[in-house]
């Protein structure tokens, strides 16, 4: 059973990273939600997933024995609620951004970057220019 959960976590992480690296803003938000779901699955796997016994201590005993650990389950339930709220807020902000910018392409959204002559914010690199690597010899 643990191997099935491990494979599920791996597939969820892979799909989340794939979606997060795309240019579509909606896919980016969904990819981040999938990464959160993968973290929830990983946290759920820390409890005993093979046990079907409830986490109730019988009268006269002090240990749970082979019962499932209730703490990871409670943490995952809380994380699911917080993650859902975060995805809802992200979707609303994304829709507002798409409406204001007129596009959902992440690379086209760079028009919000400051202009080159702004004294406070760093400028965008010029077209086709990336930071020089390796560094130039003889000074900065």
Structural features:
51% helix, 140 residues, mainly alpha
List the helices and strands and how they pair.
Elements: H1 2-20, H2 25-45, H3 70-101
Helix pairs in contact: 1-2, 2-3
Could you walk me through the main structural features you see in this protein, from its secondary elements to its overall organization?
It is a single chain. With 140 residues, the chain is mostly helical. The protein has helices spanning 2-20, 25-45, 70-101. The chain is elongated.
| Separate helix tally | 3
The SSE order reads HHH
The low-pLDDT segments are none
The share of residues in helices is: 40-55%
Query: What spatial form do the alpha-carbon principal axes imply?
Result: elongated
Mean pLDDT reading: 81
What profile does the largest beta sheet have? none
Distance between the termini: 56 Å
* Radius of gyration computed on alpha carbons: 23 Å
Structural class: mainly alpha
Percent strand equals under 5%
Q: Total strand count, please?
A: 0
């Amino acid at each position: 059973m643990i191997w099935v959960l491990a494979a599920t976590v791996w597939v969820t992480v892979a799909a989340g990273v794939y979606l997060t690296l795309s240019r579509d803003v909606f896919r980016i938000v969904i990819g981040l939600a999938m990464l959160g779901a993968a973290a929830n699955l990983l946290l759920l796997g820390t409890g005993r997933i093979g046990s079907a016994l409830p986490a109730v201590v019988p009268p006269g005993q002090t240990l749970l024995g082979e019962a499932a650990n209730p703490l990871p389950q409670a943490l995952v339930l809380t994380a699911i609620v917080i993650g859902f709220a975060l995805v809802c807020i992200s979707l609303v902000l994304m829709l507002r951004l798409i409406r204001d910018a007129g596009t959902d392409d992440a690379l086209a959204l760079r028009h919000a970057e400051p202009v080159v002559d702004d004294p406070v914010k760093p400028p965008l690199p010029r077209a086709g220019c990336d930071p020089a690597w390796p560094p130039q010899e003889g000074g900065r």
